[in-house]
Amino acid sequence: MQQWVYDIVYPVDRWLHIVATTLLVGGTFFYELVVPVAISDLKEAQQLDVFAKARWVFRSVVRLSVVLFLISGGLALYRMWPTYTRQRPPGQPPTFLWTIIHLGPRDYTAAFFWSTFHVVLSVLAMMIALVLTNGSRPPARAIGWMRINLIIMLVAIFLASVTRHIRLSTVEQQRGVFTD
Fold first, then answer.
1. What does pTM read for this prediction?
2. Biggest alpha carbon distance in the chain?
3. Tens digit of pLDDT for each residue in 29-76?
4. How far apart are CA 172 and CA 22, in angstroms?
5. H or E segment and range at residue 96
6. How many CB atoms lie within 10 A of CB 88?
7. Whole-angstrom Cα distance, residue 107 to residue 170?
8. At what angle do helices 44-84 and 10-29 cross, to 10 degrees?
């Protein structure tokens, strides 16, 4: 592959993924925790008007974030797929659980395992965000669902961090940067 792809396209892709995450998590946090406190002194009709306008704007943020996630996440998965599907070292059992809890030499199976959970939770979070912001009226218990979705997104971010850590520590271990 061309060097400029590694030097330009992949860093921009990672940046877009982080920006999309920031927009969605920050927007959810703001819409769910800041706006209710900020409008608490308004009359109920005014509160509903502010919530409706904020939801209308947040809908655009959600749609943009979902598009950025699908593009940047797809490209990142394409980039990492050969790494995730590498063969295990000889003598290492072929189970995900063993790979995760094993404290000895790692392979990329554990990173694939964690990245799978990251992708599943991220897709779930995007679907919840789209359902909460689409339509002319918010669904019942929208604030409760936004709180649940915020937790799902934070866990998905944690899983991405674990995946990256395992992938990088595997490379370091294979290069002899650190030993057990």
1. 0.80
2. 69
3. 988 888 888 898 999 899 888 888 888 899 999 999 999 999 999 999
4. 29
5. helix 96-101
6. 14
7. 6
8. 150
